[in-house]
Amino acid sequence: MNTAWEVVIGLEIHAQLATSSKIFSGASTAYGSDPNTQACLVDLGYPGVLPVLNAEVVRMACKFGLAVNATIPSRSVFARKNYFYPDLPKGYQISQYELPIVVGGELLITGDDGQEKRIRITRAHLEEDAGKSIHEGLGEYSGIDLNRAGTPLLEIVSEPDLGSAKEAVAYMRKIHSIVRYLEICDGNMQEGSFRCDANVSVRPRGQTELGTRAELKNLNSFRFIEKAINYEIERQIELLEDGGEVRQETRLYDSDRNETRPMRSKEEANDYRYFPDPDLLPVELDAAFIASVRDTLPELPDAKRQRFLADYGIKQDDAIILTASRQLADYFEAAATASSAPVQTVAHWVIGDLSAALNRDGIDITGCALSALQLAGLLDRIDDNTISGKIAKEVFEAMWSGEGSADDVIEARGLQQITDSSAIDSIVDAVIAANPGQVAEFRAGKDKLIGFFVGQVMKETGGKANPRQVNDALKRKLAAP
Amino acid sequence: MSQEHDALHTRTLCELRQGLADGEFSATELTEALLARIAGAGEVLNAFITMTGEQALATAADADKAIANGDMKPLTGLPLVHKDLFCTRDVLTTCGSHILDAFVSPYDAAVVERLGAAGAVMLGKTNMDEFAMGSSTETSYFGAVKNPWDLSLSPGGSSGGSAAAVAARLVPAATGTDTGGSIRQPAALTGTTGIKPTYGRVSRYGMVAFASSLDQAGVITRSAEDAALLLGVMAGFDPRDSTSSEEPVPDYLAALSRPLKGLRIGIVREHFDEGLDADNEDLVRAAIAVLEQQGATTVEVSLPNLDLSVPTYYVVAPAECSSNMSRFDGVRFGHRADNPVDLMDLYCRTRSEGFGTEVKRRIMTGTYVLSAGYYDAYYLQAQKVRQLISQDFKAAFEQVDVIAGPTTPTPAFALGDKMDDPITMYLNDIYTIGANLAGLPGISVPCGLVGGLPVGLQLVGPHFAEETLLACAHQYQQLTDWHRIVPGDFA
C-alpha cells in the first residue's frame, strides 16, 4: 500500500430482517419462489392499497440499535423516496430519511495496527426492498419479479472511520456476527440477505479535507468487498498521481474481471424528493418498550469472547473464531462442559476437524448432525487414553458418517489403544531385534532415529499403541545394550 | 309499477328502509325503478361512469329474501352509488381517468365492503374530476357532469357525479371523497347534504389516493338523517389503514335529536369578508338564526390564517399527489402506451396520454415543491402554515362547539367558466379547505336558493364531533324545507 495516501471508507450495510412477512404487507418473505407468487396487492402497489407497518420489524431494528449502544429515538418517521423504476411498484420506496429508528452507535474491530479500533455508526433505518428486473430469456422484453418487493431491510450506515479494505471487512464481519447473534438477519450473502455498498475515497496523508468518494454497489461477499475496495483504492491513487480527478459516482464491481466500472451517468442523478409518508404514522417508542427489547438481547460476540477468555483460558484467536457465530460458540460451550478433556483440546477440535468437515460438506453449524455431546464423548476417549489423537481423527470421520458414538466406533473397529505394558514391551523388543543396524546407529548418538522406531511399533500395532508408553519403552530398551 | 310506488325516487334512505320493512315495495322493485330513472331522466347529467344494474338486481333479490326471512341489516335493499375512486371488485374503477379507463379492481374498498356487508345495493359508479382533482367535475376523462338545477352549470366537484345523481333524485345516496371540499362543495351547489367526517374516521383502504393526508370518505344524501345512517356503517377502525382511528363509533342516528340548547356556534369573522356573495351571506345568516331559535348561541371567532388555506393546500395536496400518481406507470395495470421504444418512452407516453391537464398540472406543481432547493420554501413552509391553521381551529373550538358559515362563496358556476383559470377555480374551495388541513369533520346542508340555485350552510366541528354536526343539520332540516326542493327538470 502506498503510504503517501490515506484511505477513508464508510459502509452502508443492508441487512434483510428475518421476518416471515413483509415490512408493510402480510405476504411471505421466503426466498426462491416462482416470480410474483409472493407479492400481494400492497406489494404490487395497486390503486387504493395502503401500507401497514410490521411490528416485528421495529422490534428487530431496536434490538440492533441497543446491541451497538445506539440511541433509539422516541419518534421516527417513514418517508417516501421518489423515483421511477419498473421494479419499484409505487414509484417510491418507503424508507426513513430525517428521523431514522436508530441513531448513533459504535462497535470495536481489530484495526490494521492490531489494536482495537472504535467504528462509529451514523444511523440505521428501516426501508422496503424493491423487486427484481429480469433481462434474460425474455427476448426484447424485461420481466419484473416483485417477490422481493417489500422485504424489510435495515440499512446500517457507518461513519467514514474505516482505513483499509481489511478494516472494512472486519467491520462488516462484526455487523454480520451481531445481526446473526440477535437473530434478526440470516446473514446469507449469496441470497442477498446481507450486502453492502462502500463509499471509498483517498486523500494525501495529513490532509483533513476528505477526498471525492466513489460508491461501490452491491458487494455480496467478504472476499469481493476486500478486492473491490482494494481495486478502487489503487484506481483512485493512480488517477490522482497522474494528475486526474476522482468523480463522485456509483461504480459496480465486476468480480470476473476484478475491477469497478461506473454504473450511472451524472445526467441521471436523481432528486428523490423525500417527504414524510402520509400513509404511515410516526413510530413512537416509549422507554418501557425499549426496556422490553433490551431484556431480550442475548450475550453479544464481544462479551462472549471476553467470557471465553476468562472462563476457559483459551487462546485469543480461538475465542474470536468460536464467538463469531453464536451457534458455534454454543456448540463449543456444550462440548467443553460435557467433556473431561482440556478446554483447549475442545477448542482445537471445534475449530479444526469439526469446522473442516462442515465446510467440506457445505453445512452450517446449525445443521450439524454430530452433536456437541457426541464430540465430547470422542474427546473423553482421547483424554482417558482409550485412543490416540491420531486414531481419534479416524473415529471422528466414522462418527461424521453416522456410524454412532465414539465408543460404538472404537468397539466396532477395534481401535482401542494398546496400553498393556508387557504387550508393548514385546512389540518393542521385536522391533529392536529386527533392526540391528538402526539400533547401532541410535546407540552411536543418532537420537533422531527414535522416530523411526516409534513408527515401526505403530505400524505393527496399527497405530493403536499408546504413544507415550511406546516412547518410554523404546528409550528404556535402546539405552541398555 | 303500481301507482303508489312511482314516487320511490323521491324518498330518503330512512323512508325507503321503512317501506322495505313494511313490505310496501320490494328491493327489486326499488332497484328497477331507480335503474329506469337513471337510464331515462338521468342520462342527460352524465353523472355515471359505470352502471352495475345486473349485479344490483342480484343483490336486491338477495335483499328481498333476507327481508322475507326477517333478517334485515341496517341497509338491506337500500340503493346507493359509489364515487368511481372506490375500488370495486370485478367492476371498473376508473377514477375518471384515461389511465384507468379499463381498470378492474381485484378487491373492494373498505367503504364498499362495509356498505355492501350492511346490505346496500350498488347501482353504479359516479363520474368525478380525474383522480378527484378539480372543483367542477369537468376534468373527468368521461366528460363533465351537469348540474340538475341548470344543465349549463357545473355541479361542483370533485364528487359532482354523486351530488348530481342525489340532487336529481336518481339515487337516494352516494359516497364521495373530500380532499379540499369535494363532498361539501358539490353538495352545496346541488342542494344536497354532504358530510366529510374527521380524518381517520372512515378507512381509506381501497380509496384511490389523491392527497393521503387530506383525503376522507363521506356521503352525499338528501338528509342529515340518511348521512347519519350511512356514516354509522362506514365509520370505524380498519387495521388496513394505519391512519384510521380507533375512536369508538357512536350511534349517529341516536345523536340526531340531541338538544341544541346551549350549543355555542362560532361565526367566523373572515368568512364574511370580501368574496362572499351577498345573497348567499343572507341565507347563511338566516340559517344560523334558525339554530339560535333552538337555543344555540353565537360567538364571533377568528381564523386569522384562513386566507392562507388555499395556497397551503395547493402545496401539500399536489406534493402528495405527485407521489401518489407515480404508480400509474404503465408497468402493472392501467393504460400503457403502444410500442414503447424503451423504458423512458414507456413512462413518458403512458403518462402523457393517460393523465389529463389538471392532473399533470398538479404532478408538476407537487414535483416542484418537493424538489431539492425548493422543499424548505414550499413543502416545509406549507406544513408549518398547516399547523397554524390547525391551531386557529383549536383556539376557536375552545370558545365554541361548532363553526357555521357558507360552504362556497357563490352558487353553481357555468361549465367552462373557470377551466382556463385554475386559481379562480381553486378559490371556490376557500371555506372548505381548512377542515381538510386540520382533519376536522364538516357538513354542508342546503340553506336556500340564490337566483334559483341552491347554496349551502357549512358546519365544522372539532375532531370526532360528527354527532354535533349531524344533530344541528338534522334539526335544521326538521324546521326547513330547502333539502326537499327538487330541481325543476327532475321533479
Indicate the CATH topology of the domain at 3-259 and 449-455 and 470-490 in chain B.
Amidase signature (AS) enzymes
How far apart are the termini of chain B? 18 Å
The description of the largest β-sheet of chain A is: 9 strands, mixed
Binned, the helix content of chain B reads 25-40%
The largest chain-to-chain contact, stated as pair and per-chain residue counts, equals: A-B, 28 and 45 residues
Total number of β-strand segments of chain B? 11
Query: How much helix, percentage-wise, in residues of chain A?
Result: 40-55%
Mean pLDDT of chain B: 96
Poorly predicted tracts of residues of chain A? none
The CATH class of the domain at 3-259 and 449-455 and 470-490 in chain B turns out to be Alpha Beta
Shape of chain A: elongated
**How is the quaternary structure best described?**
heterodimer
Find the structural class of chain B using helix and strand composition: alpha/beta
Radius of gyration of chain B: 21 Å
Percentage of residues in strands of chain B: 5-15%
Give the domain tally of chain A: 3
Shape, principal axes of CA atoms of chain B? globular
CATH superfamily of the domain at 3-259 and 449-455 and 470-490 in chain B: Amidase signature (AS) domain
